[in-house]
């Protein structure tokens, strides 16, 4: 048994296709909110789409919808040629071999009473099978691939005996145990020390290249999105504001909200006074109208408060949803 797997030959269709995705939640008092509202995007085979936005923008909800932890209120999701929008039971269990999630907090996502070896043995036995010696060899391969060496010593350790970076590497090894083709990485470095974040991103980049994996990389950090992402999609209040190749978006941001994020990013060439007129949380009410960023936008006019702009192609794969592109 080998950890390596060959990515399926591309048929020309993206690995992930999301069309008009929406999610509704009911609050106390009967009010409905829509934290994900008419979101569409694709992810090609071997591509990383970085999903960027402030806390509460709907990033994690989209990730959980794609993993079918949540069921969407509207829209359609196709992964690896299969419509997974409403799958259940055995179909959902089979889908878990295609798509996996790397959670934000590696300590919370690991069982404190199980060793590193235990965390890997179960998924390998369940999804891949094999004789005990073969299963053990796969566990060794997984630990080696994510940099948890010496393997014999690491296998016996419990999560509390590992550093934060080592715990996240173990969590990544566990996702690889079922040989997935698509990973949702939900803020995988935000709970780690700054000194070890680069190592985790480098590991994810190597896995993408060597195993042909596709990623939805969820983050609020445009610097890491530029490093790891092939494309960046900017989300605000559940709406897509801007999408572009990573370097293009960071070098030439067109939406006022993207400029706001870059102005708040340390080391950014766009860093400076924050381009906003207010600092208020977004309105997620289902009855809202217009662009959700309008109450904070310095360019907003009457039409911005009344109508959500359609995304326009401004060239080089760059799409922007703004009524005032000329500004």
H-E string: EEEHEEHEHHHHEHEHEEHHHEE
**Alpha carbon gap, first and last residue:** 57 Å
Spans of at least 5 consecutive residues with low confidence? 1-10
β-strand number = 12
Strand content: 15-25%
Task: State the shape.
Answer: globular
Structural class: alpha/beta
Neighbour order of strands in the largest sheet? 6-7-8-3-9-10-12-11
Q: Main beta sheet, described?
A: 8 strands, mixed
Helix percentage range: 25-40%
Radius of gyration using CA atoms only: 21 Å
- Average pLDDT value? 92
Number of helices: 11
Summary of the model, kept short:
This protein has 327 residues and is an alpha/beta fold. The protein is built from eleven helices and twelve strands.
Protein architecture, described:
The chain contains eleven helices and twelve strands. It has helices at 59-66, 89-95, 116-127, 132-145, 151-155, 164-176, 194-211, 222-228, 246-251, 256-263, 302-306, and strands spanning 16-26, 32-43, 48-52, 74-79, 82-83, 99-102, 182-186, 214-219, 231-236, 239-245, 312-313, 319-320. An eight-stranded mixed β-sheet has the order 6-7-8-3-9-10-12-11, with helices on both faces. It has a four-stranded antiparallel β-sheet with strand order 2-1-4-5, covered by helices on one side. Helix 3 crosses helix 4 (132-145) and helix 3 (116-127) packs parallel to helix 6. It starts with 15 loop residues before the first strand and ends in a 7-residue tail after the last strand. Mean pLDDT is 92; it is low at 1-10.
């Amino acid at each position: 048994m080998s950890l390596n797997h060959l990515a399926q030959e591309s048929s020309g269709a993206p690995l992930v296709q999301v069309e008009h995705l929406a999610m509704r939640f009911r609050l106390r008092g009967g009010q409905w909110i829509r934290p994900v509202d008419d979101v569409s995007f694709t992810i090609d085979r071997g591509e990383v789409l970085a999903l960027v936005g402030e806390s509460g923008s709907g990033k994690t909800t989209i990730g959980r919808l794609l993993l079918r932890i949540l069921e969407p209120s509207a829209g359609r999701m196709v992964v690896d040629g299969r419509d997974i929008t409403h799958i259940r039971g055995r179909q959902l269990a089979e889908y878990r071999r295609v798509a996996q999630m790397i959670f934000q907090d590696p300590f919370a996502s690991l069982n404190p009473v199980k060793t590193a070896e235990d965390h890997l043995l179960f998924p390998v036995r369940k999804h891949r099978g094999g004789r005990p010696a073969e299963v053990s060899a796969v566990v060794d391969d997984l630990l080696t691939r994510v940099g948890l060496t010496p393997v014999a010593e690491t296998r016996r350790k419990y999560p509390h005996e590992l550093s934060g970076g080592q715990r996240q590497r173990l969590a990544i090894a566990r996702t690889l145990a079922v040989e997935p083709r698509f990973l949702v990485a939900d803020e995988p470095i935000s709970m780690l020390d700054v000194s070890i974040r680069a190592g985790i991103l480098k590991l994810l980049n190597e896995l993408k290249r060597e195993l042909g994996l596709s990623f939805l990389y969820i983050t609020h950090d445009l610097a890491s999105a530029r490093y790891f992402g092939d494309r960046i999609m900017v989300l605000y209040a559940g709406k897509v504001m801007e999408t572009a190749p990573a370097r293009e978006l960071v070098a030439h941001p067109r939406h006022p909200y993207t400029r706001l994020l870059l102005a708040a990013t340390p080391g950014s060439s766009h860093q400076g006074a924050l381009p906003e007129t207010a600092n208020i949380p977004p309105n997620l009410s289902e009855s809202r109208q217009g662009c959700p960023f309008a109450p904070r936008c310095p360019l907003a006019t009457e039409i911005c408060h009344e109508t959500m702009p359609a995304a326009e192609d401004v060239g080089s794969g760059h799409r922007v949803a703004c009524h005032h592109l000329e500004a």
